[in-house]
Design brief:
CATH architecture of the largest domain: 3-Layer(aba) Sandwich
Strand content: 35-45%
Largest sheet: 7 strands, mixed
Number of strands: 23
CATH class of the largest domain: Alpha Beta
CATH topology of the largest domain: Rossmann fold
Number of domains: 3
Shape: elongated
Oligomer: single chain
């Protein structure tokens, strides 16, 4: 009997295996795949630096304009003049916003028109909870608006100033200049994308209704907005969801009632943080040489969203002045002498500014300088830029020592001899 039961179980398992193997998985429609997994690449800047460095600044967003973080060089494919660029040979690496001087400026635009009524305190409490969630790289400005926008606090990260501004909000007039308020708030910032400085801005719009004043238009608002990002939060059942969705190109959120506001504010802050972390800076050493213009294209691998202008980064650069260097770390590397110096002669009491570079490294360099004998020379890194250091000759003529600089991110070290003449 036990043997028959075992045979029956085996037979059933075989039949199930055959049945499952014959099932054809239903593919996900391409439109749905794009909606779920599609990614947009938003180009901010393409620039170059010596000896042959190309920088590409961009962001990665999903199809709902939410930030995508955590990507590395292995997720991307880069071509120059339609030829594949090897990440290894090009010393390619990715930096994120933590690697740059980054500021995210947030404009909170609060509707205080008469329709808010007795719920104004709920609105202020929710805004205060949002302020408590701020990160160290955020600065916030506060507006209130009914018949006209009023700036209560310019950009600051001082929580007490922001709380004080929110506490000042009082009920306004029975006229809502929503479009005009947003247009004015958009003038408060400009996005800046430089190698040494990145400033991005967003607006958080909070309203319980629609534009009733008619002094401006939705069309003009969208024109003024351009690529600037707005999060729109509507409260209650009198909002015009269709128009708020058009305004909120970074996202539209709906709270059924005022007690839900704090929850929605926190949800938006999470999206804001993801938006900040979706910024990338790709750095590589180009093999191109000569005064020629080149075309580059950066793709995200396995991206179902393809062939649209915002599905890749497209740019050009000129390789004029590019010159070749060897991998490694070098002090005082120049076009005339890419290998830099191995020794230095300095007079007693003199100082010398030294520069160090790491070529074909796999991470953004960070340097630590040291003197082997501080009674001979001292060396101090610039507190703003560790690739620059000041060397001071302390000892008497005829003395000598060594100094070393260590690239702590790439485990590279360069040591040179220093002689006091």
């Amino acid at each position: 009997m036990k043997r028959k039961n075992r045979l029956l179980i085996i037979l059933v398992m075989l039949l199930l295996s055959l049945y499952c193997s014959e099932q054809v998985s239903v593919p996900v429609p391409i439109e749905r795949e794009v909606e779920l997994y599609g990614r947009k690449l938003i180009k901010h800047q393409v620039d170059t630096d010596f000896p042959c460095i190309v920088n590409i600044m961009f962001q990665v967003l999903n199809m709902q304009n939410k930030g995508i973080s955590g990507l590395s060089t292995s997720h991307f494919e880069l071509t120059e003049d339609d030829e594949h660029v090897s990440p290894t040979e090009a010393g390619m690496y990715i930096l994120n916003r933590q690697s740059a001087d980054y500021v995210l400026r947030s404009v909170i635009m609060i509707d205080n028109s008469a329709s808010i009524g007795s719920n104004l305190q709920h609105l202020k409490d929710a805004a205060l909870e949002y302020i408590d969630q701020l990160t160290e790289y955020q600065q916030v400005a506060i507006y209130q608006f009914s018949d006209m926008p009023i700036l209560l606090q310019y950009f600051t990260n001082d929580l007490e100033l922001l709380r004080s501004a929110i506490d000042k909000i009082e009920q306004g007039y029975p006229s809502t200049n929503l479009y005009g308020a947003v247009i004015e708030g958009l003038t408060l910032w400009d996005d800046v994308y430089e190698v040494d400085e990145i400033q991005q801005g967003i607006m958080l719009l909070l309203t319980d209704g629609s534009d009733t004043q008619g002094s401006s238009t939705l069309t003009r608002l969208i024109e003024e907005r351009g690529d600037k990002m707005i999060y729109a939060l509507g409260i209650g059942d009198e909002i015009d969801s269709t128009k708020l969705k058009k305004i909120g190109n970074a996202g539209f959120y709906h709270a059924d009632d005022y007690p839900q506001l704090a929850e929605k504010f926190i949800e938006i802050q999470t999206d804001v943080i993801n938006y900040a972390n979706s910024f990338y800076w790709l750095v590589y050493f180009s093999p191109k040489r000569g005064n020629k213009k080149h075309h580059l294209k950066l793709h995200l691998l396995d991206n179902p969203y393809i062939e649209e202008e915002d599905s890749f980064v497209d740019g050009t650069f000129n390789s004029a002045g590019f010159y070749s260097v060897n991998p490694g770390i070098f002090i005082e590397s120049t076009m005339a002498d890419p290998e830099g110096i191995d020794s230095l002669l300095i007079s007693p009491g003199d100082t010398r500014i030294l520069n160090v570079d790491s070529y074909y490294a796999r991470a953004k360099p960070e340097y630590s300088w040291s003197s082997h004998d501080e009674s001979v020379v001292t060396v101090d890194a610039n507190f703003l830029d560790s690739s620059v250091a000041m060397l001071s000759a302390i000892g008497a003529s005829g003395r000598e020592t060594k100094i070393s600089v260590h690239d702590v991110q790439n485990s590279l070290t360069k040591t040179i001899d220093v002689y006091i003449e």
